[in-house]
């Protein structure tokens, strides 16, 4: 789901809850909002506020971890790809086809980021096998010297590491987002904003402050959802390392 839509829904729920509280506070009998009632309401909402803060912190930490993991996987894969190309270049002209396959894989990944905003998918035949076409080419090689034997072993090892990163990225894409957790958190926050509206005076200053607070909390929800899409969101992992790698391949 689009992070802007999720953030907009969260804002509407929070601000709507506050307005509903203000409207209800205007018609309730005075004894429902006396000092004893307000103390009880504050005590109850303090518990929910603490739980909401903890849940929000967990979601922010989860989103940041997901973003950092994707960034690390992309940069590590790029470094290993360039290293593999250099190892194959030292092996000799027999690896020309394997190096061409490697370049095609990087080009396919760049196209996939532009089209789908992700790396490691299996919906496109051009990228479904990852580094496997290069590995197939490597297994056909017959080393003639000890140096070539070592280089081939090294190439297979690096390509195996790239394959592992490919499937780790695919697993990250398929992990999904904890929507029930987010829905419960928003419900808690709506209850808090409802009680805020219930107890606050109804004037333009309070109205503006509640509006800004709702917008601030909704922006946090937007950021959490957006960072779960690190290759296609508004805050995203840069594809510059892949473009830089493409310039280095084949030299």
Quick structural summary:
The chain is mostly helical and 251 residues long.
Order of helices and strands: HHHHHHHHH
The biggest sheet, with number of strands, parallel, antiparallel or mixed sense and barrel status, is: none
Overall number of strands: 0
Query: Radius of gyration, Cα only, in angstroms?
Result: 27 Å
Residue fraction in strands: under 5%
Uncertain spans: 120-126
Sheet/helix structural class? mainly alpha
What would you call the shape? Answer: rod-shaped
Would you tell me the overall average pLDDT? 83
Number of helices: 9
The first-to-last residue Cα distance is: 42 Å
Give keywords:
0% strand, 251 residues, mainly alpha
What does this structure look like?
This protein has 251 residues and is mainly α. It has one domain. Helices cover 79% and strands 0% of the residues. Helix 2 runs antiparallel to helix 7 and helix 3 runs antiparallel to helix 9. The longest helix has 57 residues, at 35-91. It is rod-shaped, with a radius of gyration of 27 Å. The two termini are 42 Å apart.
Topology summary:
Blueprint: H1 3-27, H2 35-91, H3 96-116, H4 125-128, H5 132-139, H6 146-174, H7 179-199, H8 204-227, H9 240-248
